[in-house]
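Shall we go through a protein fold together, starting from nothing but its sequence? Please make up or recall a protein chain and show it to me in full. Go ahead whenever you are ready, and we will take it from there.
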Amino acid sequence: MQAQRQELLIQLPEHGWRVANQEGELEWWVDEMWQLESLWSPVGSLTYVTFLVNPISDGARKKGEDVWAVMASPVKPMSRLEVEREFTLSLGPNWKKRLPDFFAHLAALRSQKQRTR
């Protein structure tokens, strides 16, 4: 998961985002959550990226272990059930091929926020 995390951190600014806040001590189903802030119009709009723990994980895990996907959402997810309604990028084999889809979804979230202003 570290390689995927690092790749996201590298590409976020290229797509007009910065990590404004990181949360790490969350519910069992979240390994880490980033609050992203848009650097592009609408500047300052927020969205969330959540690193999801495999639901069949036995619970005794170190940070970064058993992370199966990353989710992009317009608001901070408060429950595991919200995962099913949001865009998720599997971090398994071929994850890099779907990375453009992930950033396209983040751009769509930014665009939605621009229309609602």
Summary: The first helix runs from residue 2 to 11. The chain has one domain: 2-116. The helical segments are 2-11, 99-116. The radius of gyration is 14 Å.
